[in-house]
Write a structure and sequence with these properties.
Elements: E1 3-5, H1 6-16, H2 22-28, E2 42-44, H3 45-56, H4 64-71, H5 79-86, H6 90-100, E3 109-115, E4 118-124, H7 131-151, E5 160-163, H8 172-178, E6 182-184, E7 189-193, H9 195-198, H10 207-224, H11 230-241, H12 249-255, H13 260-269, H14 274-289, H15 297-303, H16 309-320, H17 324-332
Parallel strand pairs: 5-6
Antiparallel strand pairs: 1-2, 3-4, 4-7, 5-7
Length: 334
Amino acid sequence: MGYVTSLFLRKMVAAAGPDVDASALLTEAGLGPDDPWDPQHMVPDTRYYTLLESIAAKIDATDLPLRVGASMRCDEYGALGLAWKAAPTLHGSMSRVERYARLWTSVVEYELRDDPRGVLFILHRDGPRRLGMRLSNEATLASAVSIARQVCPVPFAPLEVQIKHSAPPETTHHETYFGCPVRFEADLDALLVSPEALAQPNILGDEGISRYLVSHLDRELSEVATEPTLLVEAKDAIAQALSEGTPKMADIARSLGYSARSFHRRLSEHGMSFQTLAEDTRRDLAKGLLRDDALSLAEIAFLTGFAEQSSFTRAFKRWVGTTPATYRRDRQGP
């Protein structure tokens, strides 16, 4: 499971207007309707997508991502927004996002890639392209254009917008907002930006302030890096699925928003196979459950995905070197 800043949820609900019950939507998403807007408060991405789909069921959401994107302000992104403004050029601003986006989302990665016509500012997001994700992707691209316009000394528009999913019935709003052709069913989710636009000096560009903010962001990024990783999230998903038997990699990948191939690749990057991860999860879960005297060994066998207690006993002895009953007794002490 990935996470996004709650700021995006609140912006979407605010932009949806009076035809939705804002308080009910926020409460359902786990946010207090009257709580302060805190960009550092993160929520699961699936909860965000579900909220967007709930809004789309009540209103025509065709231009909702564009209105949300237009409402975004640099200052709302905290130090990252300030670093965007203080970068010497627009290229520097986008480079900040490429490096530090992890501070407000764990489900999106950005890439600057050279193109014969300029530079592609690419949005990478794994997972099934459900309606909520599609709306979120459009809002993300619209937000990038909005904050670029806030720092650029001349009117800014990309050369082209590329969107991987199919076009809505009406695309006039998109072309009007972006000020350029919008190509749906493309190979990427991206903005194509001209070299001239990227070289424009930012209105508030300041090298000294920029260096200070980048140093601050580096510290923040190092702190984020200590939070739950893919392996922790995957183990949690496996643990929750074990009561239904041994989980399949494809099912766990889907629950985390990855294709099976992408999930396998990401695990490999951590030096881990799915089989090893599932085995480690079963072992760790069993050891934890054995500390709860209210659970019988048969119940623990079921919760760790074994059809029979004898199978659980053999596996546990292989993992730990002793039987579950002995392990529990040893943990209790004299």
